[in-house]
Amino acid sequence: MAVEELESPPSLATMYPRALTGALTELPRKLPGLRRGGEPELPDLELAVHDVEIDREHLAHYDHVCGFRVRDELPPTYLHMVAFPLQMKIMTDGSFPFPVMGLVHIENRIEQKRWISAGETLDFKVRTDNLRDHDRGLAFDLVADASAGGEPVWHSESTYLRRQGGGGGSSSDSDKKSEPPEPHAFWKVPDDIGRRYASVSGDINPIHMHSLSAKLFGFPSAIAHGMWLKARCLAALEGELPAALRVEVAFKLPLLLPSKVAFADWPADGGRDFAVHDARSGKPHLTGQVRPAMTDRT
C-alpha cells in the first residue's frame, strides 16, 4: 500500500468544491478506481500525519456544540475531527471510484484504549477497506488510527453506502416496524445545529447547512450530521463511559432540522445500549451500544 505523509491535516474548505463539482456533473468515472470490466476498486493508499497537537479552544467549542463537559480528556468522538479531513482527501482523490456527494454514512465504530489528554501529541493513519455488496448497493469502510508515542490509543471505522439500482428489497433496520424504547429524555434539535457543528468540524456538506441547499440533494430540509448525533448521545452517557471503550452506532433515518427527538438508554452486556427516535412518530434515527474494551494491559 502506498503511504503519503502529510505535514498537517488538510483543509476541508479546499476539498468540498471538488466534491460538489463531481456531484453536480455526475460524469462517468474514468479508468482510475475501476478494475478491468468496470468494477469499482478502492484506492491502495494510506494517508499519515504526525505530531498533531490538540487546540484546547477548539476542543472546548466542540464540547459545547455536542453537549460534553469541558475538560482535558477528549470525548471518544473528538478525534474524528482530525480523521475526517484525511478521509475526505482520499474520497476526493482521482483514484477513488465514487462521487463523494451521495455517499451515505450508515455506521461508525470507535475503540478507545484509554482516556486521551488534550496535552498529548498524536499520529494518525487513514485508509479505505472492505468494499462489499450491500442490499442497497455497495459498502466500504474508512479506517482511522491514532497513536501517542507509538502506542495505539484510538481506532475508528466509518461505513459508507454507495446506492445502486432501485434499492431492491431492503432489509434495512430503518424500514422495520418496531416499538421504540421508553424515552429517558427529549431533545429539541435546533435548525442551526448543522451550521454549528460544521463550524467546529469543517464538514460543510450542503445537506447539513440550510434547507435550500439540502433540497438540491433531495431532502425537504437540512439534516443533522450523524457524528454530531453520536457525540450528543455519548454526552448524555458521559458519566457512564469507561476509559477503555467500544462504541458502535448505526445511522437510520435522517434527522431533519429542526426536530424533537427522544433519547433512551438501558444496561446491556456489561455496558449500555441507546437509541434516538422521532419524538412524535417513533421513527428511528440512531441505535448504538457502548461496551468496555479490553486493553493491552489487561
Please describe what this structure looks like.
- This protein has one domain (2-163, 180-292): Thiol Ester Dehydrase, Chain A (Roll), CATH 3.10.129.10.
- 21% of the residues lie in helices and 34% in strands.
- The protein has an eleven-stranded mixed beta sheet, covered by helices on one side.
- The protein is globular.
- The chain has seven helices and eleven strands.
- It is α+β, with helices and mostly antiparallel strands and 298 residues long.
- The longest helix has 12 residues, at 80-91.
Any chance you could write out the topology, listing elements then pairs?
Blueprint: E1 2-6, H1 16-25, E2 45-53, H2 56-66, H3 80-91, E3 104-112, E4 121-134, E5 137-148, E6 151-163, E7 185-189, H4 193-201, H5 206-209, H6 211-215, H7 226-236, E8 245-251, E9 259-268, E10 271-278, E11 284-292
Parallel strand pairs: 1-2
Antiparallel strand pairs: 2-4, 3-6, 3-8, 4-5, 5-6, 7-9, 8-11, 9-10, 10-11
Question: What average pLDDT do the residues reach?
Answer: 89
| Low-pLDDT segments, ≥5 res | 26-37, 167-175
CATH superfamily: Hotdog Thioesterase
Give the strand line-up of the largest sheet: 1-2-4-5-6-3-8-11-10-9-7
Please give the largest β-sheet.
Answer: 11 strands, mixed
| Helical segment count | 7
Separation of the first and last Cα atoms: 32 Å
Helix vs. strand class:
alpha+beta
Overall 3D geometry? Answer: globular
The ordered string of helix (H) and strand (E) elements is: EHEHHEEEEEHHHHEEEE
